[in-house]
């Protein structure tokens, strides 16, 4: 399609603007005719608001889904994952299989979580089973570590309730378990790009992510409960610490993390960890797929916060709708510039004016540093092939012989 892409953004970040300018795209205002709008989550609410009556044309694309919050609000994410588990249980899906203690074998990737004030009585019951545990309070609609604090006594919850007057509001607060017997290794902050194609769902992960660490060594001591430099890896918090390093910003690249783990824990263990992380990403996205408004004008860059415990088990903490595009280090700037560049190569192939009717498969060379984790079309093809092999008696093995350590289906991202 002839012509230059006309772009708008309300996020003035150099990694965005430099990418647009490199392509020779033309900057316009939101009141002009535009083709590509990289917008904040506040703006997306206005664009898709029923009050504005705004309708996007075939040659317009935006970087958020209308109801992205089904995944990026902490309480809704938990709600959707729990619903997903129950639906799979009703279908008697092997994915919902549990061990003798009632724990999911394949879908146990979120910490024990309660929403307050609605789940207060359930929380008290759980707390009394293990009164020495430490819990972390996380406001559902905030980011960058704002409003987070740790508790190890019920009296602290009561004080919080009085101070915030939560009984007079409709706000929900998420409480996630921070196990004393499972020291946190760190957070992998892995930018993920979710692309909705007209043929179906396609999830791709950016391979050049990074992981964040605290500037103060972790300790389960109750005397350090109020020390956020021990418990929260958010750069917005850590950059104010005395030991913050402005060169590396308290971050490792994911490739450096892999090298460290391979040298200390072995390659097989490391590969298993990253396989589990990919599994978490795919299953969390499939959990929200039925309720997500997959508007053909939209794509999404999600930031996944995954904590790794000392047993190298990954846990999904939250998903960010707008991963930070601020560059705190030189490596940060390079990574995020490349992330945007590779993203634009996928959603606007060859720098062409967007066409939401685009129905072509993703060429491998267009992926850049992305890797395909899940492709619905490929998965359906694999399912049909398995069914055919099963009916013809060629499918080897049986449910009784399946090892509990392996998933019942092949990994579609491999």
From TrEMBL:
One of its GO terms (biological process) is microtubule cytoskeleton organization. One of its GO terms (cellular component) is ciliary basal body. It is found in: Cytoplasm, Cytoskeleton, Cilium basal body. InterPro entries: TTL/TTLL_fam (IPR004344). It holds the Pfam family TTL. It comes from the Eukaryota. The keyword Lyase does not apply. Residues 384-414 are annotated as: Disordered. Its main location: cytoplasm. Residues 391-406 have a biased composition (Polar residues). Keywords: ATP-binding, Cell projection, Cilium, Cytoplasm, Cytoskeleton, Ligase, Microtubule, Nucleotide-binding. One of its GO terms (molecular function) is tubulin binding. PANTHER family: POLYGLUTAMYLASE COMPLEX SUBUNIT TTLL1, TUBULIN POLYGLUTAMYLASE. Belongs to the tubulin polyglutamylase family. This is Tubulin tyrosine ligase-like family, member 1. It comes from Sinocyclocheilus rhinocerous. The gene is ttll1.
């Amino acid at each position: 399609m002839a012509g230059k892409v006309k772009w708008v953004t309300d996020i003035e970040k150099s990694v965005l603007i430099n990418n647009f300018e490199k392509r020779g795209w033309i900057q316009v205002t939101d009141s002009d005719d535009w083709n590509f709008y990289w917008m904040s989550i506040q703006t997306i609410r206005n664009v898709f608001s029923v009050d504005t009556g705004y309708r996007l044309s075939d040659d317009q694309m935006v970087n958020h889904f209308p109801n992205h919050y089904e995944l990026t609000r902490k309480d809704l994410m938990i709600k959707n994952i729990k619903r997903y588990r129950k639906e799979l249980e009703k279908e008697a899906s092997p994915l919902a299989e549990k061990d003798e203690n009632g724990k999911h074998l394949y879908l146990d990737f979120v910490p024990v979580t309660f929403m307050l004030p609605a789940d207060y009585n359930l929380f008290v019951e759980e707390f009394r089973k293990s009164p020495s545990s430490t819990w972390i309070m996380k406001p559902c609609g905030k980011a960058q570590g704002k409003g987070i604090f740790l508790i190890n006594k019920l009296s602290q919850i009561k004080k919080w309730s009085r101070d915030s007057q939560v009984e007079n509001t409709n706000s929900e607060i998420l409480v996630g378990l921070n196990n004393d017997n499972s020291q946190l290794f760190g957070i992998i902050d892995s930018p993920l790009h979710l692309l909705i194609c007209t043929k179906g769902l396609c999830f791709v992960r950016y391979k050049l992510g990074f992981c964040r660490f605290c500037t103060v060594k972790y300790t389960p001591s109750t005397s350090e409960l109020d020390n956020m430099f021990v418990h929260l890896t958010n750069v917005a918090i850590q950059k104010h610490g005395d030991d913050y390093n402005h060169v590396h910003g308290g971050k490792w690249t994911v490739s450096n993390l892999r090298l460290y783990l391979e040298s200390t824990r072995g390659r097989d263990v490391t590969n298993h960890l990253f396989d589990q992380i990919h599994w978490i990403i795919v299953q969390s996205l499939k959990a929200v797929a039925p309720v997500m408004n997959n508007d053909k004008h939209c794509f999404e860059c999600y930031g996944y916060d995954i904590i790794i415990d000392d047993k190298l088990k990954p846990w999904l903490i939250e998903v960010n709708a707008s991963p930070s595009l601020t560059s705190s280090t030189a490596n940060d700037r390079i990574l995020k510039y490349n992330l945007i560049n590779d993203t634009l190569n996928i959603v606007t192939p060859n720098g062409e004016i967007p066409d939401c009717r685009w129905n072509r498969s993703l060429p491998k060379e267009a992926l850049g540093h992305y890797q395909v984790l899940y492709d619905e079309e490929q998965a359906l093809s694999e399912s049909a092939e398995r069914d055919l092999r099963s009916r013809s008696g060629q499918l080897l093995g049986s449910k009784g012989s399946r090892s509990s350590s392996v998933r019942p289906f092949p990994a579609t991202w491999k």
